[in-house]
Specification:
8 strands, binds 2-phosphoglycolic acid, 8-stranded parallel β-barrel, 15% strand, 42% helix, TIM Barrel, alpha/beta
Length: 252
């Protein structure tokens, strides 16, 4: 089965509700009629409800950027997977490098969040990636192996059809430095092989693995031409309709 590409925009801590509405309206008109790739936007929590209404009937999917691992309880400041499902999310980004490195999220917590997201019928976009130091000391593949194994340790093969992985080298996020097509392909193919070992061959070959880290109009086509790159997770360049639409319209 060919893997349908995903182009996802992670808006991070940007966009008020009016700003989010303007961007969604521009995306809706600019991307109408596109059906051979899936478009996903991940606004901040405060704009999710309005975004869900504005996206209704557009074919563009809604994602949150984070979730709690519990469904309800005394967790001041947290938002649960059930609440995200309720507001209209299909996806939730889990384990983004900014969550890991600025907010101290560990593999253990990430594993619980992925489990909780699936239990609430959300599709996790599970982020992994090495730091510059880890790359320079030759630890990239070991780090990816650990993150994949630990992050998916509560997941059965039957759930894997709903999981999306995003490989985002930390040194390429928001820095303007993209991994070369070859570096990205090497990591993606390594991740797919790892999943074959952890689950089954067909699960690994159906899984969508996105690349993230300074994806722009100028580099998306080369990345998407790689056999194991099934889409992109875009930060900065997803905040403006023109640049995000150009990425959405990548050519392979
Ligand atoms: P960037 O962010 O495209 O701005 O590098 C990617 C991400 O953090 O998902």
């Amino acid at each position: 089965m060919p893997r349908k590409p995903i182009v996802a925009g992670n808006w991070k801590m940007y966009k008020t509700i009016p700003e989010a509405m303007a961007l969604i309206n521009a995306l809706r008109s600019g991307a109408s009629g596109i059906s051979d790739r899936e478009i996903v936007v991940a606004p901040p929590f405060t704009a999710l409800a309005a975004a869900a209404r504005a996206l209704d009937g557009s074919g563009i999917s809604l994602s949150a950027q984070n979730t709690c691992w519990e469904n309800e309880g005394a967790y001041t400041g947290e938002v649960s997977p059930t609440m995200l499902k309720d507001v209209g999310c299909r996806y939730v980004i889990i384990g983004h490098s900014e969550r890991r490195h600025i907010f101290g999220e560990r593999d253990e917590t990430i594993a619980r969040k992925i489990r909780a997201a699936l239990d609430a019928s959300l599709q996790p976009i599970f982020c992994i990636g090495e730091t510059l130091e880890e790359r320079e000391t030759g630890e990239t593949l070991a780090v990816l192996r650990r993150q994949v194994k630990e992050g998916l340790k509560l997941i059965r093969g039957a759930d894997m059809g709903r999981v999306v992985i995003a490989y985002e080298p930390v040194w390429a996020i928001g820095t303007g430095k993209t991994a070369t097509n070859e570096q990205a392909q090497e990591s993606h193919s390594f991740i797919r092989t790892l999943l074959e070992g952890l689950f089954e061959k067909n699960i690994a070959s159906d899984l969508r693995i996105l690349y993230g880290g300074s994806v722009k109009a100028g580099n998306v086509d080369g990345l998407m031409a790689q056999p194991d790159i099934d889409g992109v997770l875009v930060g900065g360049a997803s905040l403006e309709a023109d640049s995000f639409l150009r990425i959405i319209k990548f050519e392979r």
